[in-house]
Design brief:
- With 88 residues, the chain is an alpha+beta fold.
- The protein has one domain: RNA polymerase alpha subunit dimerisation domain (DCoH-like), CATH 3.90.1800.
- The protein is built from three helices and four strands; from the N terminus they run H-H-E-E-E-E-H.
- A two-stranded antiparallel ribbon has the order 1-4. A two-stranded antiparallel sheet has the order 2-3.
- A hairpin with a 4-residue loop joins strand 2 and strand 3.
- The chain starts with a helix and ends in a 12-residue tail after the last helix.
């Protein structure tokens, strides 16, 4: 029965639903030039990239919190995953 549901619904939609809709989406700031996660500076009200030291190339996107946590844990082990963003 689960196999039939998976085939009917589609694997990509199932993964999207389990990771983004059923999980907790989290808004992150991503630098378009280097691909690293940034942070939001509430004083200046802009996103800032810690590597590039500016906020010119920052984009907001939603990721599952587990994915953001995985990226940060990999960075703590000196494995730096980079996100490549396309222009809309």
């Amino acid at each position: 029965m689960e196999r039939d549901c998976l085939i009917a619904y589609g694997a990509s939609m199932l993964i999207f639903e389990r990771l983004m809709l059923s999980s907790d989406p989290f808004e992150v700031q991503v630098c378009r030039s280097c691909g690293l996660l940034g942070y939001y500076n509430y004083k200046l009200k802009i996103g800032v990239c810690p590597s590039c030291k500016n906020g010119d190339q920052i984009s907001n996107m939603k990721l599952p919190y587990a994915c953001k946590l995985l990226i940060q844990e990999l960075q703590s082990m000196n494995i730096v995953p980079r996100l490549k963003l396309e222009e809309p």
